[in-house]
Amino acid sequence: MRFDLQPGVARCFAENMKNYLMTFGNYSIVNPKENQTLTVRVTSQGGTASHHLAEHVQSGQFSFVAHESGDFLACIWGDETHDPQVLSIDFEWKTGVNAKDWPKIAKKSNIDRMALEVQILHETALSIKDEMSYLLQRNTEMLEVNWRTDSGMLLFIFVSFFVTFIVAGLQLWNLKSFFKKNKIL
């Protein structure tokens, strides 16, 4: 993707990743001038672990394997200069199957095009299987939360009905005794 960035302003991108998922990123200033530089930082959720930090660069790459599930954040700052010109940035972030460099794999192992396509499809199928397993696990967790919430609400409904009937009974008893006291009833 390509976007514009003011010097001194940060632009952040988040990607939700699972355990042991490979990621690759590439960034650069389009047509950089000599004094135009960036600062790029890639961290895990909440900034607990830093995976990449590059200061005062015009281009660069990062790659890592996620050792925890969650959101990963890539922030890009345009370094402040005396020239307040807007920077045009090329940014690419690939995860999972897309992060592998398939043409290099094909050259290294000297396999034909069809075998490469089969390997790509196999990796894609494994990625889909992992994603489905993850979604099934999340669905089970959400069903458990839903069941606990429903049980709590049912208990709350019965307690509120009980309190309402007790208050109504007390009001009727109070009105009856009031009317008897004033000899209206």
UniProtKB/TrEMBL annotation:
<dbReference type="GO" id="GO:0030134">
    <property type="term" value="C:COPII-coated ER to Golgi transport vesicle"/>
</dbReference>
<dbReference type="Pfam" id="PF01105">
    <property type="entry name" value="EMP24_GP25L"/>
</dbReference>
<feature type="transmembrane region" description="Helical">
    <location>
        <begin position="153"/>
        <end position="173"/>
    </location>
</feature>
<dbReference type="GO" id="GO:0005794">
    <property type="term" value="C:Golgi apparatus"/>
</dbReference>
<dbReference type="InterPro" id="IPR009038">
    <property type="entry name" value="GOLD_dom"/>
</dbReference>
<feature type="domain" description="GOLD">
    <location>
        <begin position="10"/>
        <end position="120"/>
    </location>
</feature>
<keyword id="KW-0812">Transmembrane</keyword>
<keyword id="KW-1133">Transmembrane helix</keyword>
<dbReference type="GO" id="GO:0005783">
    <property type="term" value="C:endoplasmic reticulum"/>
</dbReference>
<protein>
    <submittedName>
        <fullName>Emp24/gp25L/p24 family protein</fullName>
    </submittedName>
</protein>
<dbReference type="InterPro" id="IPR015720">
    <property type="entry name" value="Emp24-like"/>
</dbReference>
<dbReference type="GO" id="GO:0007030">
    <property type="term" value="P:Golgi organization"/>
</dbReference>
<dbReference type="GO" id="GO:0006888">
    <property type="term" value="P:endoplasmic reticulum to Golgi vesicle-mediated transport"/>
</dbReference>
<dbReference type="GO" id="GO:0006886">
    <property type="term" value="P:intracellular protein transport"/>
</dbReference>
<keyword id="KW-0472">Membrane</keyword>
<dbReference type="GO" id="GO:0016020">
    <property type="term" value="C:membrane"/>
</dbReference>
<dbReference type="GO" id="GO:0005793">
    <property type="term" value="C:endoplasmic reticulum-Golgi intermediate compartment"/>
</dbReference>
<keyword id="KW-0732">Signal</keyword>
<comment type="similarity">
    <text>Belongs to the EMP24/GP25L family.</text>
</comment>
